[in-house]
Amino acid sequence: MSSTHPVQVIAVTGGKGGVGKSNVSINLSVCLAGMGRRVALLDADLGLANIDVLLGLRPKRNLEDVLAGECSLTDIMLTGPGGIRIIPASSGTQRMTMLGSMEHAGLIHAFSEISEQIDVLVIDTAAGISDSVISFVRASQEVLVVVCDEPSSITDAYALIKLLNKDYGVDRFRVIANMTRSTQEGRNLYNKLTQVTDRFLDVTLQYVGNIPFDESVRKAVQRQRPVVELSPRSKAALAYKQLAEKVDLWPLPSTPRGHLEFFVERLVQGVSGQQ
């Protein structure tokens, strides 16, 4: 049965590894849950899953088992901090690019089963610009690109935006600067990125703010807790709350793409096209 409940699907990506995508995904999810949204967080790094590690969770099953038809999506979902639901992934880097038609159908069915239970699906993509990253980002309604103050971060973010724009027609991106030393540094990072995108691409970038560098984040990672829970008054936690307030105002999709099974259909169509 098709769902009529709109679900906001947000891909958190960045091209480069080490920019803090998973931390952004976790803390944004917890903040949105604190505002009354029902949030699921999908670990879409199918080769090097790390959401469960960052939160000290020990999943018994994961997305691989759902794809194999051994259990439902509800069976593998874990309850994380703030009541967020976590969909764990596991090993198998090539898994998403080798799905058969039965697995495609099973994945669509699995996600449509949970669509009435959630309002937001946050997707923590893998690093790089692999086929699975492109598929997850293309299928999402909102693309949040995480950048930090390293030349390779801007270069890799641009490469990802260029590929998605030129080859797949994605033309709208939101940008968050992470681990910044000042508000101005975040704005400067965004300006560096728009200087090249404005010159060479037909895309719209929107700056959604910065997360300051904060020792509390490192401590939270060591304790396997979100910084917004462990140190709610820290600079980083307050910035995450501001980010969540902005995300909460993003318009909900009103088209069929707003329904979760359409997200998965787009996802698996993208994967099929890469086989």
Topology, please?
Blueprint: E1 8-13, H1 21-34, E2 39-44, H2 51-54, H3 63-67, H4 73-76, E3 78-79, E4 85-87, H5 101-114, E5 120-125, H6 131-139, E6 142-147, H7 151-168, E7 172-180, H8 183-200, E8 204-212, H9 215-222, H10 227-230, H11 235-249, H12 260-273
Helix pairs in contact: 1-11, 5-12, 6-12, 7-8
Write up what this structure looks like.
With 275 residues, this protein is an alpha/beta fold. It is globular. Helix 1 crosses helix 11 (235-249) and helix 6 packs antiparallel against helix 12 (260-273). A hairpin with a 5-residue loop joins strand 3 (78-79) and strand 4. The chain contains 12 helices and 8 strands. The protein has an 8-stranded mixed sheet with strand order 3-4-2-5-1-6-7-8, with helices on both faces. The chain has a single domain, classed as P-loop containing nucleotide triphosphate hydrolases (Rossmann fold, 3-Layer(aba) Sandwich). It starts with 7 loop residues before the first strand and ends with a helix. Helices cover 46% and strands 17% of the residues.
Measured distance between first and last alpha carbons: 29 Å
Using the alpha-carbon principal axes, give the shape: globular
Give a short account of the largest sheet. Answer: 8 strands, mixed
Pick out the low-confidence regions. none
Secondary-structure element pattern, one letter each: EHEHHHEEHEHEHEHEHHHH
The total domain count is: 1
Structural class comes to alpha/beta
The total count of helices amounts to: 12
Across the major sheet, the strand order is 3-4-2-5-1-6-7-8
CATH topology: Rossmann fold
Strand element count? 8
